[in-house]
Design brief:
Helix content: 25-40%
Number of strands: 5
Strand content: 15-25%
Distance between the termini: 51 Å
Order of helices and strands: EEEHHHEEH
Structural class: alpha+beta
Shape: flat
Length: about 140
């Protein structure tokens, strides 16, 4: 809702949002007072137009002609590239840590001098650097 309120420092435009939208109360001082009334009328007019035909952020266009699925299907073409990369010495660190189905508990915490904090002990065959390479940092 919106209205004109005369309190404290003079006349002000007050706009209140619905409780569902945060229940905000916004106040605006507009000088001269005649301009305040013009702004109030404009806001009320815009609100009436929006309320009659709200915009929900989705626009659609209904097409008369429905295309066949065969016309919409794109033929698959196989790329002629080969992905290569050197594996870390210990294998895939990411897979080693997340594919361990028999893991009953976390590893023992150990102090890491490089990080300056306690971390889970690193599995045999892996280094702290190889774990950082997993994240791409």
């Amino acid at each position: 809702s919106s209205g004109i309120n005369a309190e404290y420092g003079g006349t002000a435009l007050v706009i209140e949002s619905l409780r569902n939208a945060g229940g905000y109360v916004l106040g605006f001082r507009i000088d001269p007072v005649e301009r305040l009334h013009d702004v109030m009328k404009e806001i009320q007019s815009l609100y009436r137009v929006y309320s009659a035909n709200p915009i929900f952020g989705v626009q659609h266009k209904i097409e008369d002609k429905v295309e066949l699925i065969e016309q919409l299907t794109i033929n698959y073409e196989e790329d002629d590239i080969e992905i290569t990369g050197e594996e870390a010495e210990g294998g895939d660190a990411f897979a080693a840590y997340y594919a361990d189905a028999n893991k009953a508990s976390d590893g023992e915490p150990v102090f890491c001098v490089q990080l300056g904090l306690a971390i889970e002990s690193i599995k045999e065959g892996y280094t702290l650097e190889s774990l950082w390479e997993v994240t791409g940092i």
